[in-house]
Amino acid sequence: MPKQQVYPVNPDRMQPWNDLPELPIDPSLYRDVDVYEQLGRAKEALALLAGRSVAIPNPGMLINSITLQEAKVSSAIENVFTTDDELYRAMSDSISDGEASGPTKEVLRYREALWAGYHYLREHGQFDRDYFVKLYRIIQESGDGIRPPFARTFIRMGGSGPNAGKPAYTPPRGKGIVEKKLDNLIGFLNDKQSQPDELLLKMCIAHYQFEAIHPFRDGNGRVGRIMNIHIITHNHLLELPILYLSRYILEHKLQYYETLAGVSQQADWKSWLLYMLQAVEWTSQLTLRKVNDIIASKEEILRVVREQTGIRRPGDLTEAIFTQPYTKVTHLTDQGLYAENTARNYLNELADLQILEKRQIRGRHYYINSELEEILSY
């Protein structure tokens, strides 16, 4: 792949940017003291999270919870909102009864796509078109794929001012053009020799490129954010997709879109790279705090269960109630932990100790881990 010696800007926001430069970009665009200082801080924070997550005896204890929050927040960036209560109940019920609202189902599909892509890369060993199409189809619950040449797609300005709704950027369009751009991105991701050799810088560049290509009719933002996590896990900077990256983007949403636009309109790669590396540092620290708080809470509750009850297999029960905030009797029986009456008695006993809150919703009984719910909410 040829290196770009100059990074041109998008000359006309109203016209498809078919001359979007291919990757890799010229190293001079990211070789900057401020960028590398921030890169060092991001790598350190991510390494601390990776070290702590490896030490967790049962990763499922927090994978479900943290990835669900990532799904919720990433969807909120696209103005898809759901309440924690409805989301946790839908997760608990596996939404098989069809009672979950549209937004809640969208969030759960994001989480499904996060895991589907993770396992796809483990099985196939590299990124390809099918990986991206798979994520898109799950998120959008759609059977189509890369947008056709005639599809008119714009990224529009937000807000409520006079320019609200007007095109801020027009992605590439035309026969074979989107496919060519996407294949270039895929080659960049799979080529271990392509510069930059710093994986986090490569992730930042790849995320911009994917959003600029905008290969699908909808859902590109969510696919791009899932790709970020998978670049990190596929290259073993984290073994599990527990980085809560979308939280930073949601809290700094305007800056996210401004720095994205800064690349295409002003060739300002520095601001974009600093923004994304700060997101990695901040969310690594946030996720680490959540991991530590979940583990500490689980250990304290396990101590109480052991000292104040005669519950058999207290460790297994405690881990089960930390797998997701809303537990049902069937969760314990399906895992083969206890018979139905024993499971119900034990959950009621935890409710009597105020470890769990027993609540009846639409005729179903749920046992809510308020400690876990609180940790996930901050």
How would you explain this protein's 3D organization?
By secondary structure, this protein is mainly alpha-helical. The protein has 2 domains: about 25-290, Fic-like fold; about 310-375, Winged helix-like DNA-binding domain superfamily/Winged helix DNA-binding domain (Arc Repressor Mutant, subunit A, Orthogonal Bundle), CATH 1.10.10. Helix content is about 60%, strand content about 5%. It has helices at about 35-55, 60-75, 85-95, 100-125, 130-140, 175-190, 200-215, 220-235, 245-250, 255-265, 270-310, 315-320, 330-335, 340-350, 370-375, and strands at about 155, 165-170, 325, 355-360, 365-370. It has a 3-stranded antiparallel sheet with strand order 3-5-4. It has a two-stranded antiparallel ribbon with strand order 1-2. A hairpin with a 2-residue loop joins strand 4 (about 355-360) and strand 5 (about 365-370). Helix 7 (about 200-215) runs antiparallel to helix 8 (about 220-235), helix 7 packs across helix 11 and helix 11 runs antiparallel to helix 15. The longest helix has about 40 residues, at about 270-310. Residues about 1-5 have low confidence and may be disordered.
